[in-house]
Design goal:
Length: 181
Amino acid sequence: MGLFNFFSRKEASAKPAVTDRIWMHEAGKINGCMQLLQQFPQAVLLAWFPESQLRWQSVLEQTGISRQVMLARSTSALQLANKTIILLEHYPIASKEETFLQSLQQQEIYVLGSLDEPIFSQFGGERIIDMMRRMGIREDEPVQHKLITQSLQNAQRKLEKKVTMEQTSHSMKEWFVKNIK
């Protein structure tokens, strides 16, 4: 620290740019993930829950892609350094997800979702699907915008307020059963 930096504020650690891509259904999400893997062949795939990890591992094997899906909780920033990160789902609690994402020190992180996932069912995913159809959005077309990312973060913060003592789970569906009454 130089003499003239002594009284200046410390810079907050830079937040990675999170790009949410949301599809109506999981089939669209799977196709979108495959396209991202073609665009970023060295990308690392991460899941929050073991059930999601196994399901995505199976999807990759069925499509002939030899790639490991890692659990976000079991990875370190060193393993993921300088790699494109694709998170295959959001974690329901905002603070845990944000802490993890900041620890990665990545420029950009892709987070994939579909409106038929448990986290979206908490906030009217079926109504949003109907609205998207009326707007003419195709099943295979992702929706992405900063406002969507901000809305997701706000929804996660609302969920976080409902959880008094988090219980770990094998799947996102089980997480909601155990933690949101």
